[in-house]
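Hi support team,

I've been running sequence recovery on a batch of backbones for a student project. Most finish fine, but this one hangs at about 90% for roughly twenty minutes before it completes. I'm not sure whether the input is malformed or the queue is just slow. I've pasted the C-alpha cells below so you can try to reproduce it. Let me know if you need the job ID as well.

Thanks,
M.K.
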C-alpha cells in the first residue's frame, strides 16, 4: 500500500547511513525510518489486509520500521525488529525522505487517531527506542537506583520522561550542549557532575568510543550498561573493566506492541517532545545541523503540499 508522507524524523542513524558507516544497509536507498502519513492507495490484494487491521483510506498512521518476515521465532514472539531477514525502511528499502512511500503490510501501521501526524513522526524511533531500553532495564530500576543518561538528544529526552514515571530514581544527564543540559535540569534531571562516581544503570544514547570510554568503571556492582546509540564505539568487558557482576547489553528499536503503547502515552498527553519542521528539500541542511549538534529536539522533514 502507498502512504502519503506527512513527515519524517531525522535521526543520527541517517547520518551514519549517509556516510557509509552502517553495514546492514542496502545502498542506494531513500533514507527515513521515522515516518508518519496517510493511507493513500493500495493494490488489489491489500484491501482485506487493511480491513482486518481496521484501517481505511485517508487514515493517519505511524509506520513501524521493523518489517520482519512474520514467520521466524523472533517475529512469532512479537519481536519483528529482530528478524534476521527483516527489511526496514531507510535501511534495506526506501524510506520516508519522500512525498510517498510503500508499506508492504497493514500490520506495520499504527493508527494515530487524533494525534497530529507530522508531530507524531518521531515517536516511531525517538519515542520507541528509549521506551524499550527502559523497559529492558526494569529489573535494575528499583527505588533509590542511580541512573545516568549519556546524550540528551531526541532519544535521551524521551528516556528521561519514561524514567521519571518510575518513583524513587535518581537520574542524571551528561551532554556537551549547555542548552540540552539546561533542558534536562528543567525536566528534573541532575547534571552528571553532581552525582557520585558509581551508577546502577547507564543508558548511552550516543554509543561512540568517546561516550563509552570509562562507562564500565562507573558501574556499581550488579550495575547495567545499556548501549542504545549506534555511534560505532566499543568497550572492553571483563572482570578488571567493570564493577563486580555488572552487565552490558544493547537495545535496538522496539516491538510493534511497544510502539502502540508509546502512541497511547502520547495520545494521553503523558509525553512532551520538541519538533522543528524543515522542508524535505532541505534534508542535507538538516543533516549538517544534526551533525554539528545544533538540534534541540527532533527535525521533521515535511514534503511539499500537493
Amino acid at each position: 500500500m502507498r502512504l502519503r508522507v506527512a513527515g519524517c524524523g531525522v535521526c543520527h542513524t541517517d547520518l551514519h547511513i549517509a556516510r557509509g558507516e552502517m553495514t546492514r544497509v542496502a545502498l542506494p536507498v531513500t533514507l527515513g525510518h521515522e515516518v508518519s502519513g496517510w493511507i493513500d492507495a493500495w493494490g488489489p490484494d491489500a484491501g482485506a489486509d487493511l480491513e482486518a487491521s481496521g484501517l481505511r483510506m485517508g487514515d493517519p498512521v505511524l509506520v513501524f520500521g521493523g518489517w520482519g518476515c512474520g514467520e521466524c521465532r523472533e517475529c512469532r514472539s512479537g519481536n519483528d525488529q529482530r528478524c534476521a531477514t527483516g527489511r526496514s525502511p531507510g535501511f534495506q528499502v526506501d524510506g520516508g525522505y519522500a512525498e510517498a512511500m510503500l508499506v508492504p503490510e497493514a500490520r506495520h501501521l499504527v493508527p494515530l487517531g487524533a494525534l497530529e501526524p507530522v508531530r507524531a513522526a518521531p515517536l516511531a524511533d525517538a519515542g520507541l527506542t528509549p521506551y524499550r531500553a527502559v523497559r529492558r532495564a526494569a529489573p535494575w530500576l528499583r527505588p533509590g537506583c542511580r541512573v545516568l543518561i549519556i546524550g540528551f538528544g531526541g532519544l535521551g529526552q524521551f528516556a528521561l520522561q519514561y524514567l521519571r514515571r518510575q518513583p524513587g530514581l535518581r537520574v542524571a544527564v551528561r551532554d556537551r550542549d549547555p542548552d540540552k543540559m539546561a533542558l534536562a535540569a528543567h525536566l528534573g534531571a541532575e547534571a552528571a557532575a553532581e552525582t557520585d562516581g558509581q551508577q546502577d544503570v547507564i543508558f548511552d544514547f550516543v554509543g561512540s568510543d568517546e561516550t563509552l570510554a570509562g562507562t564500565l568503571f562507573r558501574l556499581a556492582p550488579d550495575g547495567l550498561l545499556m548501549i542504545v546509540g549506534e555511534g560505532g564505539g566499543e568497550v572492553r568487558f571483563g572482570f578488571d573493566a567493570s564493577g563486580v557482576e555488572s552487565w552490558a547489553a544493547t537495545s535496538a528499536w522496539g516491538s510493534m506492541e511497544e510502539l502502540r503503547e508509546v502512541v497511547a502515552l502520547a495520545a494521553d498527553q503523558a509525553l512532551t517532545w520538541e519538533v522543528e519542521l524543515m522542508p524535505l528539500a532541505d534534508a542535507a541542511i538538516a543533516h549538517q545541523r544534526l551533525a554539528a549538534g545544533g538540534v534541540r529536539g527532533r527535525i521533521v522533514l515535511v514534503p511539499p503540499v500537493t
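--
Follow-up from support: It reproduced on our side and the slowdown came from queue contention, not your input. The chain has a mean pLDDT of 92. No action needed from you.
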